[in-house]
Design goal:
By secondary structure, this protein is of the alpha/beta class. Helix content is about 45%, strand content about 20%. A 6-stranded mixed β-sheet has the order 3-4-14-9-10-13, with helices on both faces. The chain has a 4-stranded parallel β-sheet with strand order 7-6-5-8, with helices on both faces. It has a two-stranded antiparallel ribbon with strand order 1-2.
Length: about 375
């Protein structure tokens, strides 16, 4: 997984499909990121924050009981143990440092499950920035705890009432707002999507997941590399960061989409939110509304590098249903004492279904990235009990 090619594309996917007024802003972000990423001082500052503030490295935990039940060896990359409770903090600390370097005083963000919003509010507080977070009204209701956390941290949370009132609409509104304030605000995108350089930049900030996991698996496994690397995919940032650590190995890469928002499994090529990738759409090419129990995966598209990996055949993308996800939450909680986020439970659900079949043969070794913890989903789970 390398730097995108000409015009910021991974193969035919990616690019920069934004209003003319945002082209200079995207170019300025790209120039600033290239300069920062080549600066040892910037990398040192970020590494220090990831260590002393975010709590990295996160551990890899063997799932002993679940492994015995399934007949495959399961390892869990514990991003749920990072500060703020998810992998989102890795990317946000990088982008917030970049915003300061660019002289920006305010962060703009969108959020679905609220974890990216909480991470943005946290980084803004840490670095003395203000933060405005756009969130769909439906997501605000089902992720009320994270809305409260953002406000406690000092962020302004703007309710988006248009469309399906989920992540897609929050992203559209955040991009519209960015047009009005590009000189003073930095748009801190939460996943590997949006116009170039965001998909590439966010993957690089999340690469730490895969790099750590690669070294940890080498210490844990006789063959050093797991047979399968599995992660949930909405936009796909935790999967992109994890896959980046194993793309040059023989590990099979599996991205697990929500059945109601399966951009690759059920969609086609489209342009949305500033990039070209896969999205679910109707016969006329209109983007359809996604539907998932997990707010963070309630998104009709997927990051362009995932589309490229799919086209290359380097990664495969599968789906699980909401029912399987709820069962996976309970199974992992009761077998390992770990309550995963609904988003992360998609990856667990596929392993539960595939273990012992031709898709995931008995005796295989499997690394699952647990991208976040499930406290935020307690109300949603109580409502369906």
């Amino acid at each position: 997984m390398r730097e995108p090619g000409a015009n910021g594309r991974f193969g035919e996917f990616g690019g920069r499909f934004v209003p003319e007024s945002l082209i200079p802003a995207c170019a300025e972000v790209e120039e600033a990121f290239r300069d920062a990423w080549a600066d040892a001082g910037f990398r040192r500052d970020l590494d220090r924050l990831l260590t002393v503030y975010a709590g990295r490295p996160t551990p890899v935990t063997p799932a002993w009981r679940l492994s015995a039940e399934l007949g495959v060896d399961v390892l869990l990359k514990r991003e749920d143990l990072a500060h703020t409770g998810s992998h989102k903090i890795n990317n946000v600390l990088g982008q917030a440092l970049l915003a300061v370097r660019m002289g920006r005083t305010r962060l703009i963000a969108e959020t679905g499950a609220g974890q990216h919003g909480v991470a943005t509010a946290t980084a803004a507080a840490l670095l003395g920035l203000s933060a405005t977070v756009f969130m769909g009204g439906k997501d605000m209701a089902r992720q009320a705890l994270n809305v409260h956390r953002m406000r406690l941290l000092g962020a302004e949370v703007v309710e988006v009432t248009s469309g399906s009132r989920t992540l897609k609409d929050a992203t559209s509104e955040a991009m519209r707002h960015w047009v009005t304030c590009v000189d003073e605000a930095y748009y801190c995108i939460g996943s590997v999507m949006g116009p170039h350089p965001y998909p590439w930049m966010v993957r690089e900030f999340q690469r730490v997941i895969g790099a750590e996991a690669r070294a940890q698996c080498a210490a844990e496994l006789p063959k050093a590399v797991p047979d399968y690397v599995v992660a949930c995919v909405g936009g796909g940032s935790n999967a992109a960061g994890t896959f980046a650590g194993f793309a040059d190995t023989g590990a099979q890469l599996v991205g697990v989409e929500a059945a109601g928002g399966a951009a690759i499994s059920n969609g086609g090529v489209a342009i949305m939110h500033g990039h070209r990738s896969y999205a679910i759409q109707d016969a006329d090419g209109q983007i359809l509304e996604a539907e998932s129990i997990a707010a963070g995966l309630d998104y009709p598209g997927i990051g362009p590098e995932h589309a490229h990996l799919h086209e290359l055949g380097r990664a495969r993308y599968v789906t699980v249903t909401d029912g399987e996800v709820v069962d996976a939450v309970k199974r992992l909680a009761r077998s390992e004492g770990i309550l995963p986020a609904l988003e992360s439970a998609h990856a667990v659900a596929w392993v539960l279904r595939a273990a012992g079949t031709a898709e995931l043969p008995a005796g295989s070794t499997v690394l699952i990235t647990l991208s976040g913890r499930g406290d935020k989903d307690s109300n949603s789970l109580m409502e369906i009990q």
